[in-house]
Design a protein that fits this description.
The protein is of the alpha/beta class. The chain has nine helices and nine strands. A five-stranded parallel β-sheet has the order 2-1-3-4-5, sandwiched between helices. A four-stranded parallel β-sheet has the order 7-6-8-9, sandwiched between helices. Strand 1, helix 3 and strand 2 form a beta-alpha-beta unit. Helix 7 runs parallel beside helix 9. The longest helix has 18 residues, at about 255-275. The radius of gyration is 18 Å and the shape is globular.
Length: about 290
């Protein structure tokens, strides 16, 4: 199969995750402090990463944390800090939001330090080492979440070990599937939304995502032979057996859910190549959505 930018970007994640972790002490003053009421916003992939961070921060006892799509930030709510995620710093909704906010401290996490959004943010956390050439976003999103997780006190070493393993997990045996549903619990739910998005973007592949406990409330009806149900992290008791009874294949790896997302990224790229598609340049998509 041919090599793409996204192949190299996926493979570089052990390095970019470590660099993100090493950056935390330098940017700590620009990141949320314990007790602050925080909103985190993004579009597409960045929104899903925001969802995961919001759950992790609240679980860690650091304070109320809400995640919003960039276009849906509730301007009437009061927060102590707004965190905006944007790989390019050019996404219209993020630029517009940061320009409009004047009374709340804002921090932009981006791959491009001198981007339009950076001009309106009070602080900028730049991850140029995680920026990407591919339209399909992989390492920037995961590196941003690693930065945020380490800022909550998590240890980087188990994450590096798991992402290294994730790059070796076989995916070729899954590429004949005709549909996949990703499921997860807690903070992994945002990652399931991102995994489903990756397969739709890169491979024009039918994929869905749900909270794992909610999957049995309807979506399991589409499970059948030739389809996958893929769990990030621990699955609810009994779910694997219920999926097996439908004839669908239950997929789960003993990895941190963020490393599990890396396996799904590789799956998405593999699907694209099997369909003779270029995952670096998905149909109808550009690196950033800039509205007239």
């Amino acid at each position: 199969m041919f090599t793409t930018f996204v192949d190299a970007e996926i493979a570089s994640q052990p390095e970019t995750w470590r660099l993100a972790a090493e950056l935390v002490p330098q940017v700590a003053d620009s990141l949320p402090r314990p007790g602050e009421r925080v909103a985190i916003v993004g579009c597409g992939t960045s929104w899903f990463i925001a969802m995961s961070y919001a759950v992790l921060r609240e679980q860690a006892g650091h304070g109320v944390t809400d995640a919003f799509a960039g276009s849906e930030y509730p301007a009437t709510r009061k927060y102590d800090r707004i965190i905006a995620l944007s790989r390019s710093g050019t996404t219209t909704e993020i630029v517009t939001l940061l320009e409009a906010v004047t009374s709340t401290p804002t921090t932009l996490i981006t791959g491009v330090a001198d981007s339009p959004a950076a001009a309106f943010a009070d602080a900028v956390v730049a991850l140029p080492f995680a920026d990407e050439q591919s339209v399909v976003q992989t390492r920037f999103a995961t590196s941003a979440l690693v930065l945020l997780r380490v800022s909550l006190g998590e240890d980087i070493e188990p994450l590096i070990a798991d992402v290294t393993r994730a790059l070796e997990v076989p995916v070729d045996d899954l590429l004949s599937a005709n549909q996949c549903t990703f499921v997860g619990l807690g903070w992994a739910i945002g990652l399931t939304f991102e995994a489903a998005l990756k397969t739709r973007e890169a491979a024009q592949f039918w994929s869905e995502s749900y909270p794992a406990m909610d999957y049995r409330h309807g979506p399991i009806a589409i499970a059948e032979p030739g389809r996958l149900v893929w769990s990030f992290g621990e699955a609810p008791v009994g779910l694997a057996d219920e999926v097996a009874a439908t004839g669908a294949q239950f997929v789960i790896h003993d990895l941190d859910p963020l490393a599990g997302l890396v396996v799904a990224q590789r799956f998405a790229v593999g699907l694209a190549k099997a369909r003779n598609l270029d995952p670096d340049h998905p149909r109808s998509l550009t690196r950033s959505v800039i509205l007239a």
